[in-house]
Write a structure and sequence with these properties.
4-stranded antiparallel β-sheet, mainly beta
């Protein structure tokens, strides 16, 4: 089992920045690829970014490429999502997820956090 706890969400103006954190506990964090997803009201959960277990491979949704950066700190068992140049359409609940391999489909992830709200005002 892997337990994931997100933090760092909040209210920010358009153009601002936030850094989300996802703290992992349980099974060896370094064995898992990590992903960030988001879900806005009335919409399906969508892929945002993923990072391999080594941290050497990352992949982003086109909608966030160049604005968001995913990273991980194995010593702290934590994965981050740095979000810059935020837009109102980035408003959503953001979830981190863990699985053995990086993936862009939510159904491929076995472990999920509870989510953190990000609201971007115009």
């Amino acid at each position: 089992q892997v337990q994931l706890v997100e933090s760092g969400g909040g209210l920010v103006q358009a153009g601002g920045s936030l850094r989300l954190s996802c703290a992992a506990s349980g099974r060896t964090f370094s064995n898992f690829a990590m992903g960030w997803f988001r879900q806005a009201p009335g919409r399906e959960r969508e892929f945002v970014a993923t990072i391999s277990w080594s941290g050497r491979a990352t992949y982003y949704a086109d909608s966030v490429k160049g604005r968001f950066t995913i990273s991980r700190d194995v010593a702290k068992n934590t994965v981050y999502l740095q979000m810059n140049s935020l837009k109102p359409e980035d408003t959503a609940v953001y979830y981190c997820a863990a699985d053995l391999n990086p993936a862009t489909n939510s159904y491929e992830y076995d472990y999920w956090g509870q989510g953190t709200q990000v609201t971007v005002s115009s």
